[in-house]
Amino acid sequence: MSGLNKYNYYCKGYTKKAISVLLAGAIAFGGAGTVLADSAPAGNTAVAASTPSAVRTGAFSDVNSGFWAEKHIYKLAAQEIIIGNNGKFRPGDPVTQQEAVLMALRFMKLDDQASGGTATALPTGFDVSNYYKPYVVLAFQRNVLDKTTEMAAENLKTSWGTRKATREWIAELLIRALGKTSDAQAVASEPSGFADDAKISIDKRGYINAAIDLGLTNGLSGNIFNPQGEVTRAQLATFFSRAEAHSAAVYNNTSSGIVTEVKEGKMTLYSGASNAVYSLNSGTAYFSSAAETAISLNNIQPYTKVTVIGKNGTASYVELNDPKPQVETIQGTFARLSVSSNKLWLKNADGYPEYAFDNATSFVDAGGSAIAASSISEDSIVAITRETFTGQNKILKVQVTSGVVNKTASGTLKSIDLTAKTITFTNASGTDETFKWADSALFSYQKAILVPSELKAGSAVNYKIVDNLIVSVEVTQAVERTVQGMLTDLNGSSVVYKKADGTRGVQLLAASTAIVIPGYAKPATSDLIADATYGDTVELTLNGSDQVTKIAVVGRKLEQLFGTSVVSYNFKTKLLTVMGSNNQARVYQLDENTKFINDFGNVPTLSNIASMLTENQKLNISALGQRTLSLEIVSKYEGTLASVNTSTRTLVLKTTDGRSLTLPYPPIVEMFGRTGLSITDVSVGSVVTGFLMPSQDVLTSLKVKTSQQLQLAYVDAANNKLGVKTSGGNIDIYTLAIPLTDETGQTIKLSDLKAGDYVNVSALGSSPLSIQSVKLTTGQVTAIDAAAGTLSVKDYTGAAQAFGTGGSVKIVRDNGTSTALGSLSLSERAEVRKDADGTTIVRILPVQTRYFSSYDAAAGRIVVKRDNVNDENYRFILSPNVYIHQGDTTLSVQSLKENDKIAVYLNNNVVVEIVKQ
User: Which stretches make up the SLH domain (predicted)?
Assistant: First the structure.
């Protein structure tokens, strides 16, 4: 393969795999890593390779479900190629050369040929731990290791066995283990196509090229190979697992074949000569050859191709190789059947083709329900399913696809079409079947008659079909459904409502019932109107037990008057006369059940509010007919600032109920974080609340509703106080009575916040109403789509976070800002958050390239070489979770050596990432 073709091969592989690999956070040999045999415990090398019988697939406590190399670890552990230690696998540990040799021999099925004698010897200076010596000797004997290269004097300056295996060394080991040395020699002179090709050892280039040709490696992001990078156990396991496709070795307890049955916790596998039955349990792992992530047993259907690795009749690992069932279907017109000879005949223009069946053949109707073979009528259309993997073409199933259906069945209601008057059921065998319903069809649930629109998908049902028509559907276990009616009564345990047909409905309330009323931020049961004449029209959501889980108001007859003026109030009759908007008097009845609202300081009761109902007093009234539900003495106006007239010193306020009010300037204007304001400082369109004097004609103050994103200066959880930074300085906020939530609306504690965090502060005037924490995502920009307005960031846990900017983005750098998403680079590190107005803020982290000097553990900082004698910026505080790495290999700060070249990424002057170069 030429260097150009090899480069194109790399690019093609990267396009297909890079995204998932980057998400995993650990690209390794072969694009996603590899794993290895156990290393010997210190001081007792013979204990290290614990016997294979100790292996239990999936028992590694440090390999979590969803781990990027989980599939390969499961597979090789089941084959006893890799072995854990004390229930752990240690996937992130680096691999030594002697460990890699042992795994290669297990991979080749040669490890049992190693001599365990004490006389095993290697040349002086070639240091290998005692336990591994027989395996290393065998590797030389089997040409898995090259004696000339490995025993060269230059290669023996450090201990050979405990030396960390590099990526290029592992490439050679694997190609030799596969017996592909000649392939490597054939391409040894070709360039690899990687950007760091010059760093690849001359004697290793052919092996790397051979690994590329076999599709075993795509290198790392940035078109580099990193030949000297260390290989982890998880990476090596993945490497050898994928190499099995090119190996001639026959692995223990591994069989491939066709699944003929999955039933009652057992899987039957046909492998060419006979059937093998495997038990399945909670420890059985299921994967697909086409993906890295686990699948479920439900994904493995009968007659599909699989590989099973098992022991003592129990499957440890099952891999789906081909999801296409190995069967064929023959359709035709049924002629007749002979039960005595186990034969049936179809008919076509050329005659009557004959088909033999046996006792294992199933006969089913169009819905998949079992039927007697003798019940099939002549001229029915049937589908015969035959297997294609034994060479005998046995008939597996005969299904009647058309004919008159008469049956009673159970299943699940999948969907309903009210226009076509059809229902699709999923029957007990899992097959979907669709029927029209008869005009006289009966639908019911718990003896209650339903209309078709009340049937819901997902409900368990019994249904009866007569002459292909549905005659009855009984719901045996309901899912959520809805009913509508007028609310007439509501108590602590039930809801009473009038249906559209005038009949009475009663439903029990669930333990928790949600209330939804348009225009109400936090509606309660007391806000619902239950009345025989004027009750709310509601939609009730009923759970499977027919209890009300939600009451949503969809219509109400409530009459609301805003700013209406009092004409008179009769203390004796408690009748209130007001002037409506059409200049016509309206009369309302007040009583002790009327809700009174008064912000002027008095306790709102009928006795003390009656004296305030003087002529021209402005009120807000909610009423049902003449019955007054609530009465509010107008003390404020809420709405938006429509205009300001500096000549007349008046403003126009458009209220939430649609009125436009002209009012004099208020003496006080409040806005959070600002002082000394006048009305001209308030933008037209701002949401405001104007507070009135008791005379109701003059504003005492105008408070502007704001939502700002601010940074925390401090958090004092002990005193329920925090400080936010504003342009005018820090502002103290006492939070005891203020809701604190995260971005999802979940309640948080003050102690969950810390100085430097961003919060969205919603306030009315100078008074905060709520505080919401802002999610910060910090990491490397991994994808940019300027046209779609999206970007992705891989955070320092290795997880990818996607952001949709909606066209509103601000890129902040030390040298300025930009609104062009395309100005970002994939190599940059960034902190991303959403501003209070929804704008995506991307703050680019500054980076410095320095030379490492030392680590000060006590101070939690690193020291770098000074650029010059005047350089005072050479000490950097480390974040507690600082990410230190070289390529995809995670490093510890202690592994950094003096004069190592490093890139240091800073977030608010704290190091969050160090890249060893």
Answer: 56-118, 191-254
Token pair in block for residue 600? 């002027």
Query: In this structure, are residues 348 and 340 in contact, taking their beta carbons and an 8 Å threshold?
Result: no
Q: Which residues contact 251 (CB under 8 A, 6 or more apart)?
A: 79, 81, 109, 244, 309
Distance between CA 806 and CA 707 in Å, rounded?
20
Helical (H) or strand (E) element with 178: none
Question: Could you give the 3-state DSSP secondary structure of residue 17?
Answer: helix
Cβ–Cβ under 8 Å, residues 561 and 620: yes
**Cβ distance 305 to 321 under 8 Å?**
yes
DSSP state, residue 601: S
Q: Which two tokens stand for residue 836?
A: 């209070």
Mean pLDDT of 860-866: 93
What is the per-residue pLDDT across 55-64, written as a single tens digit (0 to 9) for each? 334 458 888 8
Q: Which residues are within 8 A (CB) of 502 and not within 5 positions of it... i.e. 6 or more apart?
A: none
CATH topology classification for 481-556: OB fold (Dihydrolipoamide Acetyltransferase, E2P) (2.40.50)
Instruction: For residue range 691-719, list pLDDT tens digits in order.
Output: 999 888 899 999 999 999 999 999 999 99
**Residue of 6, 38, 421 lying closest to 209 (CA atoms):** 6
CATH class of the 636-701 domain in this structure: mainly beta
Asked if 57 contacts 74 with a C-beta cutoff of 8 angstroms, the reply is: yes
Cα distance between residue 720 and residue 767, in whole Å: 16
Helical axes 97-107 vs 167-177, angle rounded to 10°: 20
Q: What is the mean pLDDT of the chain?
A: 86
In whole angstroms, give the CA distance from residue 866 to residue 850. 8
How far apart are alpha carbons 370 and 373 in whole angstroms? Answer: 9
Residue 350's identity, in one-letter code, is D
Report the C-alpha gap between 838 and 815 in whole angstroms. Answer: 24
Residue 569, both tokens? 């109030």
Please determine whether the domains at 407-477 and 559-633 fall in the same fold group of CATH: yes
Architecture of domain 846-916 in this structure: Beta Barrel (2.40)
Which CATH number applies to 559-633?
2.40.50
Residue 709's Cβ-side half-sphere holds a number of Cα atoms within 13 Å equal to: 17
pLDDT, residue 433, reads 85
Residue 42: the pLDDT is 31
Of 114, 351, 740, 334, whose CA–CA distance to 343 is shortest?
334
CA distance 553 to 516: 6
pLDDT value, residue 671: 95
Judged against a pLDDT cut of 90, whether residue 678 lies above it is answered with: yes
Q: Which CATH class is domain 705-771?
A: mainly beta
3-state secondary structure of 788: coil
pLDDT in tens, 90-126: 888 899 999 999 999 999 999 889 876 545 678 888 9
Average pLDDT over residues 513-526: 88
The CATH architecture of the domain made up of 327-402 is Beta Barrel (2.40)
Instruction: Report the alpha-carbon distance of residue 485 to residue 539 in Å, rounded.
Output: 7
Residue 33: C-alpha distances to residues 21, 93, 236, 726, 876 (Å): 9, 12, 6, 48, 33
Residue 76 is inside which H or E element, if any? Answer: helix 70-78
Least confident of 7-21, 101-115, 307-321: 7-21
Confidence of residue 45 (pLDDT cuts 50, 70, 90): very low
> Is the pLDDT assigned to residue 206 strictly greater than 50?
yes
Residue with tokens 């046909």: 270
* pTM score above 0.70: no
pLDDT at 732: 94
**CATH 2.20.25.420 given to domain 776-844:** no
Percent of the chain with pLDDT over 90: 52
pLDDT greater than 70 at residue 13: no
Domain ranges of the chain: 92-246, 327-402, 407-477, 481-556, 559-633, 636-701, 705-771, 776-844, 846-916
